[in-house]
Amino acid sequence: MKKLLLVQIFLFIGLCAFAQIPSISQIQSQQMKVEDLSDEQVRQLVAEMKKNKIGLDQLDTYAQQKGIPSSEVGKLKDRIRALNLEKELSFPVSGFSPITDTERTVDQEGTTQSARDVKPMTAAERDYDARRKKIFGAELFTNKNLTFEPNLRMATPPNYKLAAGDEVVIDVYGYSEVQHKLKVSPEGYIRIPYLGPVYVNSLTMDEATKRISQQLATIYGGIKSGNTFVQVSLGTIRTIRVLLIGEIEMPGTYSLPSLATVANALYVSGGPNVNGSFRDIQVIRNGAPVVRFDLYDFLKNGDLSNNIVLQDQDIVRVNPYKTRVELVGQVKRQAIYEVKENETLQTVLDYAGGFTDIAYRDAIRASRINNKEREVVNVPFAEINSFQLHSGDRFVVDSVLSRFSNRVTITGAVFHPGEYALEGANMTVADLIKQADGTKEDASTARAVIFRLKDDFTPTLLSFSVSEGGRISLQREDSVVIYSKLGLQEEYQLKIAGEVNRPGYFNFSDSLQIGDLILMAGGLRDAASLKRVEVSRRVRGKEYNPADSISSIVAQFDLSEDLASAQGFYLQPFDEVVIRKSPTYSEQASVSVDGEVVFPGSYTINTKKEKISDLMKRAGGLRPEAYAEGAVLLRKTFVNSSDSALLNSKLQIFYNKLDDSTAIRKMETTVSQKEQLLGINLLEILKTPGSKYDLLLEEGDMIKIPKKLETVQLYGEIYFPKKMRFDKKITFRDYIRGAGGFTNSALKRRSYVVYANGDVKSSKKVLFFNSYPKVKPGAEIYVPAKKDGKGLNSQEVIGVTTGIASLALIIITILDRTN
User: Fold this and answer.
1) Is 115 helix (H, G, I), strand (E, B) or coil?
2) Considering the entire predicted model, what is its pTM?
């Protein structure tokens, strides 16, 4: 039962969208029960409605047409709202709904599907659409915000006449109460229960109410006595068929509600086409024209008096236009306008809303088509009201010139710069300065300039003194510039550096002293010294002397606690002040010791003479498991760590020759740190404190002491680079053999060992044998590769041999001559 009900509703929804689908029977519609539907079935129904663009507010009307009980439609709406699905069924009004390819329908809710629907267009169609949009009035049918849909919820018009298909609602109330909804039959009757047929065709609502009340009085006696009352209203209105022909976008037969007007019919058909008239639209009824509708009356005056209500079988004919002209340029609405006989250019200007503010009105240029060719016509302003129009005329309204007839400009050091009117032929520069409220205090009055245009509009320049301005007359488009003294000099600044809170540049002021500049810089830092404050000054205004090598003047001062400097010393532009750091000031410096000590952590350097041995005492000494020979010192550096010779050599070996990614990552990590490895001999330091091995500590030093190391790492040109267990009985060559031996490209004599503390020892050549360094716990053995050597080719061998032979021959010859 649920599946059958769902299928019925889907058929109903499909019928709402496409009239070709056959309707369900009246009995099936009346048997529909919404409460039998599951939530999932309701969601499927909403999805189908959304697909067919059926809104929630359209269900009532469609349900009445198809005989579905209104109670079931209300229940369905409640189920949709309960599931929060009403938003899925919110669609913008898009026009009348189509019935067939040749018919268009306006449903009883006014929802439409018009011929203006957007679809892909060819180039010719785009050109056609662009030309149609230029026609004045076409926006009524191309603007989606305008619909002209009939209002089906208004009160029934008094002159509305009933006909077949209308629904009459009869409400009897009072002593007797009953309600009937009756359809007018094709013969013009309504059949009232227990009374019989009543003829209402062609009656107005007042006439139908009177006749129906008289008939009901025969069975309801209370109507005559006044105890029972009768109210007759119009329910669902009928549908009429109207034919639209002529120069129209989508001609054909349309099914419209009986309240539809001429404008409704034009809208559903897409309106007049490019050749259609907007001013000569006829309504033909029973073979004779009954009205001529002019859309311009509505566009200009809002007049819809000829927009009559259509009747069944009416014909709306759009005739071709007779005269059209185009108006472009400086008018408020540029468009193509249709004109009637005896209408002039002034009428077209009225349709266009008149001229814009910058329009040139003295003459309008027109392009006209005569019998053989085009011609240009000039229309003076006085003839606009009487100028007769020809179809195809194109009028161009130009704009006024973008120049001024009496403008002069003043800029620069005046109180109100800008544009002023040239008042009379004798207006002078002094008059213009007076209108600008005078010159500013920083104005340079000795020299000012006027930028002027000659008669041929080439620029020229005239210089003058402001005091002479009363003798210089101005001309149209003159531009007067009064310069500022401050703008004509380099910006005066002072610089302060050193131990101040905000060092930098500051603007110069007269009578500024050193203490004032210090305050402007945010005051002194804690490390600042008031002694030996230096001021460097530019050498300015001196005569050139080749023997004079002075490039700047430097003065030194001792400031008091109140920042007062030497009496009468004032700063000058571009002075640079330097505040030194106090020689006795020292910030805390910390070092750290990590690893196998009793108290690892960070320590503050007590004195500048503190050494590694002192730090080890403060850290409690070494733990029993500490490996002192592997201790390293990491010291911060102010250069890139790649500048270190040791790290540089390691990088070359690793990146160029090694495939051990672990070693490469290790080296990349080491290089990324802003520290340098400094090898120390911790055993000697602890044994002999203060010796040459006992280094002075610096801020940021980090001493790392590992546990006892028991491995040796091998890198480079060996067959199997790996980590091996340390054995003091095993020599360098034994470790190499344990890793597979040297490769063919190994440079044996350059092998070296890096010990755990960072010390490096390389191999030595003793006679014809290599002497390799001793290996210790934690050491790293590196075997570099030979450089790629290129052998001699056959020609080079012949060349070398020939050269040696020639040299030998020369030596023999010399010896023979000597003997």
Assistant:
1) coil
2) 0.50
